[in-house]
Amino acid sequence: MACCPFHNDRHALRSVFHAMNEVAYDMETETAQTEVIVGEGEDAHVEIVERTTLTLRITLTSLSYPEGADRYWFTAEERALLDELMGPEFVPLFANLLGTDPYGGILPNTILQSLPPNEKGSAIVQAALTKVGCKYVWGAKGPNQFDCSGFVYWCLREAGVPSANSMCTSAAGQAQFCYNQGWVISQSDLQPGDLVFWQNAACTKGDRWNEIHHTGIYIGEGKVIEASSSKGCVVIRNVWSSASYPLVLCGRVM
Fold first, then answer.
1. What's the distance, CA 227 to chain centroid?
2. How far apart are the first and last CA of the chain?
3. 64, 144 in Cβ contact below 8 A?
4. What three-state secondary structure class fits 76?
5. Which residues lie across from 50 on neighbouring strands?
6. Which end of the chain, C or N, has fewer beta carbons within 10 A?
7. Contact 48, 35 (CB under 8 A)
8. Are 69 and 76 in contact (CB under 8 A)?
9. What is the pTM of this model?
């Protein structure tokens, strides 16, 4: 019996996915011996304690869609079609196929129609909405891949904000810059285009200002847009705060 064409297409897509997302594992075992004193007084004696440490290293190699096009030798025409398919207007279609909703249950036009005209914050939000669904990649600053602070930086620069270059840093650095400039506002005063920052309450390393590990942009209607590592892309969500990740600072760039 001949295979169904749809089955063959699924098999081909699965093969392409695995080729573009490779996982490698490496394990290392290290054994060390330590002398410890056991007992007290006359009963005290030295014993050799052996400890074994097992280290598992997982390496994930994930290609972006332009890198995938390079691997599969796409023609110029095929690349143009691929670029069109990866545009923000197709994000809802792919989200529906995957059973996700990067728009957080709200239509972008609802946000756009509520923005005040000719305002800096509106320009920031307009830039941010064009990147909904773009992939989260740590350290990326655009144009189609972002981490949280890279996304904020890209949106500010795209909106022509004079201080954008000073925001090309981490979430903690951006928060500290807002604080030092006197741009801190209360959560109740949030307006579209304002920045919001979350603290990692469990982190006590002290290598980040105020232990701030995440940032996003308030877009109005009680929503924020952010490059989310947990969601894997740029998403719109309700303004949120939790015990482990409290929202601790809001800023308005000047």
1. 4
2. 68
3. yes
4. helix
5. 33
6. N
7. yes
8. no
9. 0.67
- CA-closest candidate to residue 194, choices 246, 135, 237, 249: 249
Here the tokens at position 164 are 């954008």
**28-85 tens-digit pLDDT:** 898 888 888 877 777 778 888 888 888 888 887 878 888 889 989 999 999 999 888 8
Partners of 28 in the beta sheet?
55
Element (H, E) at 247: strand 247-251
CA-CA distance, 193 to 61, in Å (whole number)?
34
Residue 103 · residue 233 · CB < 8 Å: no
Alpha helices by DSSP H, listed for the chain, are 5-20, 65-71, 76-85, 91-98, 108-114, 120-129, 148-158, 171-180
* CATH class for the domain made up of 100-251: alpha beta
Measured CA to CA in angstroms, residue 189 lies from 185, 195, 251 at distances of 6, 12, 10
- Rounded Cα distance between 10 and 33, Å, is 53
Distance from CA of residue 254 to its chain's centroid? 25
Per-residue tokens: 123: 């320009």
Which amino acid belongs to residue 107? L
DSSP states of 142-177? SSSEE-HHHHHHHHHHHTT-TTGGGG-S-HHHHHHH
- In sequence order, which residues have a C-beta less than 8 Å from that of residue 203 and are 6 or more positions away? 211, 213
Amino acid at 242: S
The dihedral over CA atoms of 200, 201, 204, 208, expressed in degrees to the nearest 10, equals 30
Tokens of 66: 């332009």
